[in-house]
Amino acid sequence: MQDKRRIETIAGLAVIAFLFIGMSFLSQLYGDEILKFALAEYNFSKALYVLMIIFAIVVAPFSTVPLIPLASHLWGWTIAGMLSIVGWVIGAQIAFILARWFGKPFVERIFPLKKLHTFENNFSDKNLFWTVALLRIIVPVDILSYAIGLFSEMNSTPFFFATLIGVTPFAFIFAYAGTLPVRLQLLVLIGMIAFLGIVFIVRNVVQGRKK
Hints:
Blueprint (H helix, E strand, L loop, with lengths): L1 H28 L1 H10 L1 H17 L9 H8 L1 H31 L5 H5 L10 H11 L2 H11 L4 H22 L4 H29 L1
Helix pairs in contact: 1-4, 1-10, 2-4, 3-5, 4-5, 4-9, 5-8, 5-9, 7-9
């Protein structure tokens, strides 16, 4: 069962990565048209981007990571990174509060509770702040935010800062990566998939020997 979940996770990340690269290609191909739109609807397009991130986290769980290359070409990778941070942090805070206030009956309308229960044992009181910050690196913002709201005793303020610390590095990394040539992005993706595949195989071999 755990192997199946790992495979599904890797497959999901691979799909998001290919969508990210596809959006980078389109953004670079139609850069002039995108720039014209950005200049004409400068503030509106920024607000819309942040609102889409928040909506994706709170209401309709889908990844907005593939939109980051578009944002980088619209406003530059620095602003795109900052806007992504704003959207992720606000969306995470809303999801956390909704889970804390309305509990399982509300959350199960958005996520299968089985999916959230897999994180239940990760939220001990010891080093919870840094656990949340580190989990932000590998767990989608929406799932983790609802899970913490349901299964932890963490308060809203430390949750806010743990989220801010956790999402900030990758917001800028993704934003900068969206400006790189597509060929280089593909090479990085292939390298990451190969690395994850090797880790997966080695782990299975080690676990098999222990048995």
